[in-house]
Design a protein that fits this description.
The structure is a homodimer of 133-residue chains.
Chain A: H1 6-17, E1 22-23, H2 24-33, H3 40-52, E2 56-60, E3 66-70, E4 77-81, E5 87-90, H4 93-105, E6 109-120
Parallel strand pairs in A: 4-6
Antiparallel strand pairs in A: 1-3, 2-3, 4-5
The structure holds a DNA duplex (30 and 30 nucleotides).
Chain lengths: 133, 133
DNA sequence: TAGCTAATTGATAATGATTTTCAAAATCAA
DNA sequence: TTGATTTTGAAAATCATTATCAATTAGCTA
């Protein structure tokens, strides 16, 4: 049976206070920073549980880290600045519908899609100007 | 100056014979399997180069591995079976346009989007039937 | 063709995220 | 409270990927 521990609550609540996506490492540091004595392994376990129970969204950053975010109600998509990390929540009904349609069109079930756009926000100029047309 | 080595050719050619996405590790094993003495670090470097030069596409698997695939010409999206690895190339003009539009709408430049759908193909039944409605 | 020089290789060590281990601590039902 | 069972957490183990650096090699150039 699943038990309720202050650690799990701490992770759930800490995740709720974050605005964007956080890595397990970052969340752990954040918790430690507020005086919590929670262990890193526990944070990983709690996040994995939350994600499985649908209480958290997760995605892979381009650097290969797993990022988590408290899941409000709907499924969202993001526009993430590669430089400053600014995250803009975007409407993706269009993509949502397309993903469902495309998956079932090819006979795929239980589709989970990853639709995130990484770029440079207006405040962060592209680092390699020579690459631009 | 960039030089042509049999190692780089081996990676390029090995990538070309793969049908779907492969990890660097897998490609290295595959090369070793055919008698090549290429080193793992070199495979990583060659793949990174190919991806940067636009000769290969790369994406992050949900497990956090970087996957590569020989890039034909256009930018494609994929429908990938979590169980058997079957990869279906999908048309995503709709999403392509949406990504561009959304990025610039929010002032983002040089957008790179990740649009991939992971699910279970018709041949692979969902492992957890209880989760379905 | 021989020699030069900078780019490339690869074995290995280093890194960094994530997972496993397992004994000790905590939870929950009775 | 007791006791069975789950959960925790520090440290070790994994795993993919990157950095190191001496030895090798590609591509000039004489």
């Amino acid at each position: 049976m699943k038990r309720n521990t202050w650690q799990r609550e701490a992770v759930r609540s800490a995740l709720g206070t974050q605005m964007g996506f956080v890595s397990a490492q970052a969340l752990h540091s954040s918790l430690k920073g507020t005086g919590s004595q929670i262990g890193l392994a526990t944070v990983y376990r709690a996040l994995a549980d939350l994600a499985q129970e649908g209480e958290a969204d997760s995605l892979q950053s381009p650097e290969g880290e797993a990022l988590y975010r408290a899941c409000s109600l709907a499924h969202h998509h993001h526009l993430i600045c590669r430089s400053c990390g600014l995250t803009v929540e975007i409407e993706a009904d269009e993509v949502e519908a397309w993903a469902q349609r495309t998956a079932s069109l090819h006979g795929f079930s239980r589709p989970e899609h990853v639709v995130d756009i990484f770029g440079f926000c207006s405040a962060c100029v592209p680092p390699v100007a020579a690459e631009l047309p």
